[in-house]
Amino acid sequence: MDLDIIACIFQLVSQLALSMGYFFIFRKSGKKGWYGFIPALRDYELAVIAEHEEEGRTYFILNACYFVSKQIYIYYDSGSPMQVFFAFITIALAVSSLFYSIRIYLALCRLYQRPRKWTVCWVLFPLITALIWGFNKNFQPEHKAWDSEEISAAKVSDASLEVIKKGLTVNLTDRTVIDFFKKRYLLKDIHLSIPTGHMVLLLGGSGAGKTTFLNALTGYEKANADVILNGNNVYNNYESMKYDLGFVPQQDLMRDGDTVNMTLIDASQLRLPKNLSFSEKNKRINEVLDKFGLTSVKNSLVEKLSGGQRKRLSIAMEFVSNPTLFILDEPDSGLDGIVARNLFKSLRSIADEGKIVIVITHTPDRVIDLFDDVIVLAKDAGRTGRLAFYGSIEDAHAFFGKDSMEEILLSINQKDEGGEGRSDEFIEKYGQRITGQAG
Q1: Where are the domains of the chain?
Q2: Of 10, 170, 265, 383, which residue is least crowded by CB atoms under 10 Å?
Q3: Helix axes 307-319, 337-352, angle to 10 degrees
Q4: How many CB atoms lie within 10 A of CB 53?
Q5: What's the DSSP call for residue 162?
Q6: Per-residue pLDDT tens digits for 172-203
Q7: pTM of the predicted model over 0.90
Q8: Do 369 and 379 meet the contact criterion of CB atoms below 8 Å apart?
Q9: Does domain 167-438 have CATH number 3.40.50.880?
């Protein structure tokens, strides 16, 4: 038999054996076994089960660059300047890949509680090592890996709330992204109805999906959802409804060299309908200046404003369009207690005008008496943002058995974040409640 054919058969058998080793390693680690049969993917997934996903991504990218660089190196004539250049590039990429592979193998040894010397075996004899780790029953991981799309201890409610005529109704099935070969769930199973005239606190720990949820509400990042505001579907009628949606980010976008009045004039050009006359726009600007106590500083430069005045101007820029749904991300950031409370009183007055105001703040307890309701988002066992509660402040205290918003937040935070790790418990508890309401 031709030696080339023998070599080809040997290579195919070796790759199949290597894939089988990876197959059983992944099965032991709680991942899909077929990952082991895809060379590019299996190296990344090996890093995932070793809890070094970032290193896995870098390793994957370096290997891809190494392959391309190597092909270019082969393409150029021997000894040519370009071949020498790409020879250096290829060697550098190979060394970098080796460095990251060692980090991944060391992490894998810790996961499988094996001596670090096994790292050398992985680098020099990957086929034999993969077969030993895959087929030897004594090689078991300390804990299983998880897939966010597969693992979620909290059950999905499958609820669908009826649309209220005056207010905001959200029936969000999920919000997903494709992230490096896999589908990730950022949000799932969020159903709530907020009547007009309500000021609502949005509470949740880091990574619970607060910003993602707000982006879904405003249509900035659409989810698999129905978002209905006063009977109109926000996603289907975005162009006609965008003036009804106001969002104030944590960082302001103002030019220090402009006056307060000029800042609002510019905002009105963007936020108000084009067919509105100059006098109507000017009237609206004056109303907003008065509402937020900025009339006396309308001719002052932005850079001369105090922290509280600057925050109020940032809010006024969005409120100039008189939105029905008004969302603010940490409007009290950097403000002392008295100034922050006065700011929240202004927001309370906006809600009292028949608006819906949703606010994120890291110090909710100092102004909690000004809120009507609270939305509590929490990460479930699959690390997906879920609705753990929506209702009145008083009901929230009873539901969680806590006396403050800070204590509620601690109860839903994961244990590795210093919390009680009870998020799934409350997600399911609220899911049962919302299912009863929907039924």
Answers
A1: 3-135, 167-438
A2: 10
A3: 20
A4: 16
A5: P
A6: 999 998 777 678 889 999 999 999 999 999 99
A7: no
A8: no
A9: no
